[in-house]
Structure formats: structure tokens, C-alpha cells
Design brief:
alpha+beta; 4 helices; six-stranded antiparallel β-sheet; 132 residues
């Protein structure tokens, strides 16, 4: 019985470490957190435009999810309240639209209004990151 308790505790601690490692703090006050196994959320510390959402999404995809610059990132939920924090400004993204249950869509052309299904490559998203 004692061995079983230790195993369960080890598995629980291991899951907590994995979940913590999946969150990341990005430059310019951005936090990126997993929503589930296929969707992640870019959370702003303050008011930022859509280009900054794409920057955070692209950086997280390449650095933490090991996406290639040509891999497509899709909007899973447009700008709105965060579901992983208590902040007001967040948008959700995915590398796997089918698993996230969204249909790819053409861009509206307005970066400040990320719409579900819009997409661009991770490399293109990172071009919106400030250099200074």
C-alpha cells in the first residue's frame, strides 16, 4: 500500500511540473499559457494591438512548441478575456485547427481583430515583434 501512494504522488508532481513548464513569459509583458493540449493563450499585461498577439503566438510556437517558421498558426479565439488568468486582454491560438475544432479562414486584413480561423506562419507572426 505504501508503494502505491508514492507512485501516485510522483505522477501528480510530475504532471504539475509539466503543466508549469508549458507556460512562458514573453518580452513586453506577455504571458502565454496552455488552454488545453492543442490551444494556447497569449495574455497581455496591458493594452496591445493584434500584431502583438501574433508576435507572442509566433514566438511561443517556435520557441516552446518547436514549430518551424513555415508552420501555420491559427486563431482559435479572438481577443477577449483570458481563461487562464484574470486579465482582460487575451487571444487563443493553435497549430492544429482540426484538433481545436476550427475551420481555417481567410484573413480579414485587420490585425487588431483576430478572427477564428485566420492564420499565418509562425515566422511571419514573429515579424510583428518589436526589435527595440
Amino acid at each position: 500500500m505504501q508503494k502505491r501512494i508514492r507512485t501516485t504522488l510522483f505522477v501528480s508532481i510530475g504532471a504539475a511540473v509539466i503543466a508549469t513548464a508549458a507556460s512562458a513569459t514573453m518580452p513586453d509583458g506577455w504571458e502565454v499559457n496552455p488552454v488545453n493540449s492543442v490551444v494556447y493563450e497569449a495574455v497581455s499585461e496591458g493594452a496591445h494591438g493584434g500584431a502583438a498577439f501574433w508576435c507572442a503566438a509566433g514566438t511561443y510556437a517556435e520557441v516552446h512548441l518547436k514549430a518551424k517558421p513555415g508552420d501555420e498558426i491559427y486563431v482559435a479565439r479572438g481577443a477577449g478575456p483570458s481563461v487562464t488568468t484574470n486579465r482582460r486582454s487575451a487571444a487563443q491560438f493553435t497549430l492544429d485547427p482540426e484538433a481545436a475544432g476550427i475551420t481555417p479562414a481567410e484573413s480579414s486584413g485587420d490585425l487588431n481583430e483576430p478572427n477564428v480561423g485566420e492564420h499565418m506562419s509562425a515566422g511571419q507572426a514573429r515579424t510583428f515583434c518589436s526589435t527595440g
